Amino acid sequence: MEAPLQAALGAPSVRRYLVLNSALFHFILAPVLYVVVWCAVFSTLHILVRDYWVLCLSVSMVSIFLTTAIIFVLHHSNKEINMNVDVRLIQVNERLVKHQLLVAVADWVQSCTGNMQLYFVFWDMSRCLRALTETLEERSSVEDDAQNKMKRNMSHLVLVTEDAAVDPEPGGSDVEQDSSEQRPLLRHEDTGCSTSSSQWEGAKVSTNYSLIPDASLPAQAKAYQLLMTYSAAYVRLLVSERLPGASHYRPGPRGNHCSDAHLCLCQYVHNKILR
Ligand SMILES: [Zn+2]
């Protein structure tokens, strides 16, 4: 399993991203940001405000507000699916789920120490797959309801990749010939599940891949794709105890099948996409 993980997270750019977006880096960033913002606002306002104490007070208030807003935005963005880490782990999780495991990169600060690690979680996907498939089948009776919600909530999940320009193989792509459920969501390191557009630029071709399941897929294949897409994001939030509150969504007629968390993976996907 080392090779797929190395392919997903081993690139220097990904490692750099992980460091610059770690909880420890944000922890160090906050006071540095406060000082920088304080100096910037002070240099702007000292011409306008003559009273020294009023100046210091107003500069401090503005700096606290701006720093808090930036840290809040960074903290909030960490709760969403991360295109540079979570999406890269889709392919690894597709392999691991056959052994009832899911992996994610989670990190948080504890006692002023960063805690970034790979976390492997035992997960039986079959019950989530069954529950989400039933939900999608129910929704399919309402005209385009589920597909419209997926388009609305997943429209920002677009991968842009640059590949070396090669002539397409004659006779069409083998992806279309594979069963939609069996083929990997990501064909290799970066590529997504469905091509939406391609632009030739010299020797390289940049391609956009959307993570929205194709409307023509059966409900089970759509459910599998959605569960895989959000698997790493879910595990990251689960192990760092940052999952959103409990859901009113009942996963199938058998009720809640998840005993490890207050919010199951299928409930998380339902709340993110189908609500
Ligand atoms: Zn579930």
Automatic annotation (TrEMBL):
Compositional bias segments (type: Basic and acidic residues): 180-191
Organism this protein belongs to: Liparis tanakae (Tanaka's snailfish)
Name this polypeptide is given: Transmembrane protein C9orf91
Presence of keyword Cell inner membrane: no
Native organism taxonomy: Eukaryota, Metazoa, Chordata, Craniata, Vertebrata
Source domain of life: Eukaryota
UniProt entry keywords in alphabetical sequence: Membrane, Transmembrane, Transmembrane helix
Record InterPro entries: DUF4481
Disordered: annotated span: 165-199
Transmembrane segments annotated in the record for this chain: 23-46, 52-74
